[in-house]
Fold:
Amino acid sequence: MNAGRREFLKSAVAATASAALLPVPAFAQGAAPRVVVVGGGFAGASCARALRTADPRIAVTLVETNATFTACPFSNVVIGGLRELSAQQFTYGRVAAGGIAVARTSATAVDAPARSVTLADGSRLPYDRLVLAPGIDIRWGALPGYDEAAAGHMPHAWRAGEQTLLLRRQLEAMPDGGLVVIAAPANPFRCPPGPYERASLIAHYLKTKKPRSKLIVLDAKDAFSKQRLFLNAWSELYPGLLEWVPLSKGGQVTSVEAATRTLVTDFGRHQAAVANVIPPQKAGRIAEVAGVADRSGWCPIDPVTFESKLQAGIHVIGDAAIAGAMPKSAFAANAQAKTCAAAVARLLAGGTPSVPKLINTCYSLVAPDYGISVAGVYHPSGGQLAEVPGSGGVSPAGAPRASRALEAALAEGWFRTITAEVFG
Amino acid sequence: MRRAFTAAIGCASIAAAAVAGAEPPAGAAACSGCHAASPQVTTPVPRLAGRDRAEIVRAMQEFRSGARAGTVMDRIARGFTDAEIQAIAAWYAAQR
Structure:
């Protein structure tokens, strides 16, 4: 028995013990309904907790490979040298203390007809409902030349952790006057404004530490989230330093050569001192294994329950899901998790889930004291999650610097609030 | 819970939501992404739990009409109907 499995059994026993006051023990056969949640990020950990809140009789197991979660929101500030990675890291102690069995292992297979998840050690975890929150995987090889080895030279830093630190160290080691290149992918991908916030905070680092340097964003798109706000702020804050090259101007990177940090487009070659390749993505691997991902690589879901349209009894939330107009953001993942938990609790109790309304709010920092936001309200419409007409939008274009500073402060407040709700 | 029920009486759809138990009404669960449930969190955003129902309703209506300046709340409030705002306010007023 490996350490992960042993720890899991320990926490499962603890979960049962903490449920001792309830009429049925959590893991008794045919008694309490069992929900397995795979993935302990903003979506999965939120859902596990919300399930226990919705109905404390539900026995919840959270399957997560890592002992420590490293959050992506604000990781661009780490790359920009103004925040430590430790501020991004959270553990599952409080989640487990809430009566959730935290299984520190990975899910390797799902038997949907038999309703069980296979864990890395071959054991099977039965469920009445399964929630998959696997986040993203990189589509290695989708961009010719960009494989796992290439990511050691040209970091993606699109899953926070060692990659975040690698990109930061490369920027710190670069001499003044170097060329930094960011390759931004086509839609859809995790955190739509993320590449542009990253460009902003790298530009801020270069402006303050290495002002003779240059940053080019090569983009596979002609339009992006909060575009006007970003472009206006860039010309105000980083003139001559940051250049955005859209698809129509030859911005699409068609291949990379990792050894020389070269990015190739149809119009030329860019040899970078530091290259950040944000590659094409897909739902985390277990989604494909479970048969809930379609040919797009993402997971179609019912907009009321988040149940997969491909496999009954399996729900998909967060970045892996095709959530219509909702972006792949931590805020959206957390909102979807709570909606899904309420629906799952209702379904397990034999009821009908109520029609939800969801919110997303995403802040981006253009500089440490300059925040902008996009917000939206969503409801099921035509089988998808659609934006409620008349709602939502981005920060006003002509807002004074004081309101940008306020949004930067609100962004930090948001991060503290959501991480407290999910892990605190 | 009792308070939520009392506050909601008079409006059938809200009363129905309150009868359904502790499940938050449509839209309410997402608020805690920014409005901290825990008083321990340091943030400029006010807590909603235990706040006066009428005060929440008034704030949402003013954000929606533009009478009150907001950063994101004006954009969010425009996505909610009067009935939804009433239900969310009643639910948060009953939380602790």
In short: The longest strand of chain A covers residues 370-381.
